[in-house]
Write a structure and sequence with these properties.
The chain is of the alpha+beta class. The protein is built from seven helices and six strands. The strands form three sheets. The protein has a two-stranded antiparallel sheet with strand order 1-2. It has a two-stranded antiparallel sheet with strand order 3-4. α2 packs across α3. The chain is elongated, with a radius of gyration of 26 Å. The model has no long low-confidence stretch (mean pLDDT 87).
Length: 173
Amino acid sequence: MTRKNRKNMTNNKKLKKKTRPRMTMPACGLCGKKKKPREQIDCCHNWICNDENDYVLFSFARNSCARNHRRFTLCGYHRTEGHRGAWQTCKKCRADFEHELEMYVWYGTNEYNFEKLATPPKFQRTHCAGCEKIIRLPDGGYTSLKDIYACEECMESGFDIHAAAGVDPIKKV
């Protein structure tokens, strides 16, 4: 083999290395990060950070893309509950949230969704039974019993949610 032929073979190897297609994983569809491990999720087959193992139990942190999508969207709820068909038109999902329609709307329209609910239903705002202040259910900061809701301030100032709900807190046997 001549020196020229060896040089041409070396150049061809370099070309092959440069033209070899690289397999790149898409960025997370929610946060846009590319450095965290990612996976294609079962419910909607979108790419998302595979970071649920990083969640600290009872921290209530919202820093896990996978957990947020699974726990706080209709898409994730639909899959977890084993419902069939599309979550956007699922009658079971809608019925499951009938008592708290505000939560159904939030689950379908929040920032943890890849696709948002196109026509969210209108709902009545939830009011505190003690002071009538509007309570935003997705934000927390309330206590509920049956269909009675009380804000933190009223509960801390002694509001009796049991009496408001018509429930005896100490049932005699």
